[in-house]
Design a protein that fits this description.
alpha+beta; globular; 43% helix; single chain; 2 domains; 8-stranded antiparallel beta sheet; Arc Repressor Mutant, subunit A; 12 helices
């Protein structure tokens, strides 16, 4: 096994040290850093970016030719990390306990170690592993957001105010598919380069907000939560793809459930668990978002756009659109079509 020891904390310095250890170049564009894994070690990349308020983001997508372990060394004030597995399995552990934790695809964990503990992540040889690490330097974050943090729920406030990493935290669960949507947006950014970091920062802030709210909800719920099995999470992802690809002529819920191997009740439960809304609410939201893009990026008329998103009545489409965006489709196109699309929000 190859072992790499990282003796720094800020993401830009972590990236620099990893590049030196891998004996390869660190590619910098503004505040984004990229390491392309050298062919002698394997394949893939690691990308990192630093934002204001102590927030950083790293995307690992790697396959190594032999087992690799990266140790983030002790005697440092570790950042608060949210780890999200996109592909493969992530194995990680703290030095003191030696207890191995495994995260599977669609799972996440919140992890914060004591300052005197090393935190390690492991890559199994010849296995592609892709995961995201959303990291918060709690001291910088508190200095910038102290007023807001003091008004947060006690569970979240305690977590964010542990500025010297005196306590270890670990929480594990499945992330909402809403988060998966944000990951896709971050990967497939198409805005002009001058707006790129602003757009990225908005998405990452959305991730952080979603995750802190969900963390509070999960650890404080008195209700017994029904657990989604791994194969059911995969089925929900398949249902999500069906909705995206067939939204102009969408099957009924029972047919979607049949196609992905779930019963209708489990599919409904899964969408509420992973999207925090019913299937019908999710579908309506997607239709309106897609119609907004079509209004701005095409010259299709209103009837054609309503057909494209699976709404047969043009008047009903206009009614739904105005309820959501406070403008009719015609008014929206007239007001925004000439503006850069990245200024419009989601």
């Amino acid at each position: 096994m190859k072992t790499y020891n990282i003796d720094c904390i800020p993401i830009d310095k972590v990236m620099s040290e990893l590049a030196d250890l891998f004996q390869t170049d660190l590619v910098k564009k503004c505040d984004e850093c990229t390491i392309n894994i050298p062919p002698q070690l394997g394949d893939g990349y690691i990308k990192g970016v630093v934002f204001d308020k102590g927030i950083g983001f790293i995307n690992y997508s790697c396959e190594f030719k032999e087992d690799v372990q990266i140790n983030f060394l002790k005697n440092k004030i570790h950042p608060l990390k949210f780890l999200y597995v996109l592909e493969g399995e992530l194995e990680h552990y703290f030095e003191e306990t030696g207890k191995k934790e495994i995260l599977e695809q669609f799972q996440y964990c919140l992890v914060a170690g004591k300052s005197n503990l090393a935190h390690s992540i492991r890559f199994i040889k010849n296995v592609r592993l892709s995961f995201n690490s959303l990291e918060i330097n709690r001291r910088e974050f508190y200095d910038s957001m102290s007023c807001s943090i003091e008004k947060m729920k006690p569970t979240v406030k305690r977590l964010l105010k542990d500025l010297d990493s005196r306590n270890a935290y670990y929480h594990k669960g499945y992330y909402y598919l809403e988060m998966a949507d944000l990951f896709r947006q971050l990967k497939d950014i198409s805005v002009d380069k001058g707006y790129r970091k602003i757009y990225m920062e908005r998405i990452v802030h959305g991730m952080l907000l979603t995750q802190l709210m969900e963390f509070h909800s999960e650890v404080n719920s008195d209700e017994e939560r029904e657990i989604l099995k791994r194969n059911e999470v995969r089925s929900l992802e398949e249902a999500h793809k069906i909705i995206e690809n067939e939204i102009d002529n969408l099957p009924k819920i029972r047919e979607i459930a049949y196609r992905v191997g779930l019963n209708a009740n489990k599919l409904q439960f899964g969408f509420r668990r992973m999207h925090r809304k019913s299937i019908n609410s999710y579908v309506q939201e997607r239709r309106l978002k897609i119609s907004k893009k079509l209004l701005l990026q095409t010259n299709l008329n209103m009837a054609e756009i309503s057909d494209k998103v699976g709404i047969s009545s043009k008047s009903y489409f206009s009614k739904l659109f105005k309820e959501k965006y406070e403008l009719t489709p015609y008014e929206f196109r007239k007001k925004y079509k000439k503006q850069p699309k990245d200024d419009l929000g989601q």
